[in-house]
Amino acid sequence: MSNLKRYTLYILNMIDLISIVLAHLISYFLRTSVLDDYIPFIQNAAYSDFLFLAIISYFLYNVTILYVDEDFFERSVFREFADSLKLVLFIVTCSLLYLYAVKKGELFSRLYVFTFAALMLVIDSSLRVLVKKLVIPKLQGSSAGEDVLVVTEKKNASLLLKRTNERKDWRYNVKGLVITDEDLTGQYIDDIEIVSNRDNMFDAVHTADFDSVLIGTELENAETLKKWIDQFQKKGKIVHVEISEYYLGDSVKTLDHIGSSAIVTYRVISAMPKRLELFKRIINFLLSLVCLPIFLVITLIVFICDLIESPGNLFIPRVRVGKNNRLFYQYRYRVYRIDAAERIAQGLSPYMRIGTVLKSTHLDGLPMILDVLMGDMSFVGPKSPNLQRYLQMNTRQRNTLSILPGIIGYWSCEDDLVRQTELEQEYIEGWHLLKDISIICVTVFRYITGRSLRSDGDTHVQEELDYVAQITEDHIPLSYDHTLYTPEKNLSRSLYLFFKRFFDIVFSLGALIILSPLMIVLMILVTLDDGGNPFYSQFRIGKDGKRIKIYKYRTMRTDAGDLEKLLTPEQLEQYRKEFKLDSDPRITKFGEMLRKTSLDELPQLFNVLGGSMSLIGPRPIVEEETGKYGRDVGKLLSVKPGLTGYWQAYARNNVTYDTGERQKMEMYYVDHQGFLLDVRIFFKTIIAVIRQEGAE
Length: 696
Known about the structure:
This protein is α/β, with parallel strands linked by helices. The chain has four domains: 138 residues, no CATH class; 97 residues, Rossmann fold; 183 residues, no CATH class; 216 residues, no CATH class. Helices cover 52% and strands 12% of the residues. It is built from 25 helices and 16 strands. Helix 7 links the parallel strand 5 and strand 6. Helix 1 packs antiparallel against helix 2 and helix 1 runs antiparallel to helix 4. The radius of gyration is 35 Å and the shape is elongated.
């Protein structure tokens, strides 16, 4: 925020607060003393509370809506009236909503509130106009303003004088000129007297009545400028130096600092003020938390429907360009069947039934709440393009991504690209909460009335079809000799497997419902730890060699895949042998706690519910680990992998592949699996987790 904008904000704050207090006092006087004979007055209402609420509402207005430009002193009377009306409506609405929420609204006179609003509108708009027309001009010529001596060349004098007066900056008053390349003493340029030349300017400033000096001349070197500054300061003057680099190009320029380095920042469009950007982020974060329970319930329904019709990945991650042109994954529900390509070739619909419902109701975009929670998106903002669309965008369109992209925005209400860009630029430069609310209302109305502007386009459709095809490829089963082991088939085993699956469903569903608040908190904490995706997924080998994707809370750094960078040669060797590490440097501090308590594996309850895993069984392994089991791999893959198992409960990370003990323990479970062993493993796991036995 520039100094002029800051001072202007102070002036507006004083005017508005004075208006609030005066409107309250006059309204209260009129209601209690003038109109009390005609309409009985409720004496027990604490009208000072209303004044307090009005002031609190005003400070909220400052944070959410008030955006002060330097053109305050050039705005019309109508504009000031409109701004005052907006302020009054905001204050009265917020105050009344609070009073009715706490059931005190009926204690306050409607006449008082109406009178307060009308008086504040009149007082505030009138004071704004009076201050601009009468008070500020007098300040500029009084001792409150700073008399400035401008030092420049003749060719630049008129332009520099024009710049000093462009925004009617009442803090400064140019009273004299020094022309450095000619001796024009006694003459005038734009009604400003030339009081000296370069040779005599230090003596002139000493004898003349100036408060400060503005140097706007092209000097030979920095040493000369330093000498001039020292000389003027010795005369007791403040020195201002014009920055010539500020005028390069037609960009929006601001002065700022990076550390202690003074900089000029160039932007195609004005940036959203940091205070508003922070407030917007807080609102989005809290709103995403409120929406999370709804998201979890719908996700569970979609998961069950997907499982019945076309099992596969629940979410589709799409690469998008976000704030400051950074790439991120935008998440949506999968709406296509896994065999979509084959169905299209046969002339059949590629959509799942639940996918058709999600698409028609726009609920397929609900997982973007996760993007909002992680800070990659906002509920309202510019559109996040794919890479192909981004490369086609012009400079102004790309620069609308100076803020977080939105789930909805002007692009969901306006189909003209040029107009979209104009609206998004206005949105960024003058954001306030009411704009978000209006965009949400318009978008919802369009959805309800069937006039949505949603258009996936060929590129977006192909993105999802390609991803579904990749899912199919990723799920090609592991090739191994199935004749190595044939599980026994009898009635007791069939009953055991039936009741085991029944228990898996009941337990995982109940646990997900009961633990959902904890899972939400853990998801937030993982995100806050280092800003990355809270979840981690990996393909493992499941029953009969099927490839399954298991889910965990992410416990490693976002750059954990760069093994050569993070691991020592000894650690690399251990990782290649065991696929695990002692004192793994890739694990985050919060991730270490999750691993020790096994909370990182809670998302695998979705795998258990879906049927790719069981609650009890051998731990799911990666393809490289299958070689550790040799000819026993068929036996290992004859049962579903488990959330916990015999090896994990009784030894966890204390036995390794090198000794062969882990393989023996997993084979022991396959050979002896049954109800009693499962119960023993279940309770032993709980004890092991509590005691943190073998935890890493």
